[in-house]
Amino acid sequence: MESSPIIAPSILAADFARLADEVGAIEGAADWVHVDVMDNHFVPNLTLGLPVVESLRKATTVPFDVHLMITDPERWAPGYAEAGAYNVTFHAEACDDPVALAKTLRAAGSKAGLAIDRDTPVEPYLEMLPFVDTLLIMTIKAGFGGQKFLPEMLDKVRDVRRRIAAGGLEVRLEVDGGISADTIEQAAEAGADAFVAGTAVYGADDPAAAVRRLRALAAPMVAGQ
Ligand code: DX5
Ligand code: ZN
Fold first, then answer.
1. 131-155 residue pLDDT tens
2. 175: CA distance to ligand 2 center in Å?
3. Largest Cα–Cα distance of the chain, in whole Å?
4. Among 3.90.79.10, 1.50.10.20, 3.10.450.30, 3.20.20.70, what is the CATH number of 6-217?
């Protein structure tokens, strides 16, 4: 079966005073909207939390891809699933038992994602792929938007893609950090099929057009995966 790319604009690069409008600007063009939750503990930055997600959920039909950069995800992650998030991703570095939390999230009504930060090898987590819906490879160090894409992270993407193919698994392989028209093709070529883009979408004059451009660049490679 041919697959098509998921493009997930990150509202980290949007105007936080106009979040509903900013999500509206990519409605119809984007597949998911990526919501970066940071707790100023797991990462040295603070963004938004559950009350904002609950309010924003009512303002749009675009599925939410929640990226939890927080400690103690066991405590907080299920609330995002209950709030109607489509996918809830937590960090491997913050979780003792990723398979158990993935199971909890699915029971709470969302897809479950596992994120791997820049300095974490992916190898120990490959055996968990059958138990998650999304594997997120950071192509920067988690914490801030607008950083430069790290091409050396693509070895991890290749490892995961190989394992997904070998196991015939239905797992979305997502990349996050520095994804733009200049970098999306190499990420897709390495095997990613879901792409987070903050600055490249919300820094553009026409965010929906930026999403369509990213999709057009990634689509040929993703179709061939
Ligand atoms: C950073 C976040 C990213 C961020 C990406 O830790 O996880 O989702 O918004 O921003 P850009 O696309 O600007 O690198
Ligand atoms: Zn993110």
1. 999 999 999 999 999 999 999 999 9
2. 9
3. 45
4. 3.20.20.70
